[in-house]
Amino acid sequence: MNYTTFHNGNTMPNxxxxxxxVENDDTAKDAVKHAIISGYxxxxxAFIYGNESKVGEGISEGIKAANISREDLFITSKLWLxxxxxxxxxxxxxxxxxxxxxxxxxxxxxxxxxxDENLMLDTWIGLExxxxxxxxxxxxxxxxxxxxxxxxxxxxTYKPVLNQVEFHPYLTQLELRNYLDxxxxxxxxxxxxxxxxxxxxxxxxQIAREINKTPAQVIIRWNIEHGVITxxxxxxxxxxxxxxxxxxxxxxxxHIRKLDExxxxxxxxxxxxxxxx
Length: 277
Ligand code: NDP
What we know:
- It is a single chain.
- By secondary structure, the protein is of the alpha/beta class.
- About 40% of the residues lie in helices and about 15% in strands.
- The protein has helices at about 25-35, 50-65, 85-100, 115-130, 145-155, 175-180, 200-210, 215-225, 235-245, 255-260, and strands spanning about 5, 10-15, 15-20, 40-45, 75-80, 105-110, 140, 160-165, 185-190, 230.
- The protein has an 8-stranded parallel β-sheet. A two-stranded antiparallel ribbon has the order 1-2.
- Helix 1 (about 25-35) packs parallel to helix 2, helix 2 (about 50-65) packs across helix 3 and helix 3 crosses helix 4.
- The chain is globular, with a radius of gyration of 18 Å.
- Bound molecules: NADPH dihydro-nicotinamide-adenine-dinucleotide phosphate.
- NADPH dihydro-nicotinamide-adenine-dinucleotide phosphate binds next to helix 9.
């Protein structure tokens, strides 16, 4: 398993499990538990997914079954827009902790920038306070464009350790990636499999056949080759294992170039400049 080091010296696993659109029942618990038993050490949760309680049970059962400790895991959750505003952050953070059954998070993210810049900045200051008080190990953002990150860089005390954004071969985010690189902010991809759409692409399938891997493994490896942390979601035990079996091969430069060339700026999620919940 590979880890990435943030600008603050802390580390995060390069591949984790996403849990968006997973029912808050044994489906969530079993997926998280199976992931931990299979070697995953990172789980990407969010308050708005409505499944933090069952994700938390999966974490607790996974820790026991894999005979590891809480400190071996890297747990992320995200602050939802209706809890924005500096004065609301700590309460929302504690609500997520309670649901997850944890006493700290490894990473807490602002889920979206929103459309009110002052509120965005005020909320970030709330996250900074959590970090200063050592209640959370790392703070970051999600769905921020360069424009939003520039506002933070002019006014904030701490810069985010990472920015979690939509990224797959149809949306390669080159300009944002270069900006994040220059500013030592890690990029993390959401919907890396494009919610399975990219797995049907001909080029992806050709490369997969050529190197005897699955299309999902090709895409996850492509994230790793680009230095992008990723969190593919699956509730299917065999796919959870498959998506993590990506550390024993590499893509060559031609594969990477062919995948990069698939870019067409196509999003499956909302435009971060306009989304407000
Ligand atoms: P993904 O791109 O990870 O795709 C998930 C879909 O692909 C599911 O239908 C899954 O099916 C299927 N799948 C997974 N592995 C395989 C495989 N090996 N072969 C074939 N099909 C496969 O979608 P998500 O949108 O869930 O994104 C991943 C995570 O990113 C989310 O769960 C969430 O944690 C995060 N996210 C964050 C957002 C943000 O705004 N910050 C927005 C959206 C997502 P099945 O489960 O049935 O196996």
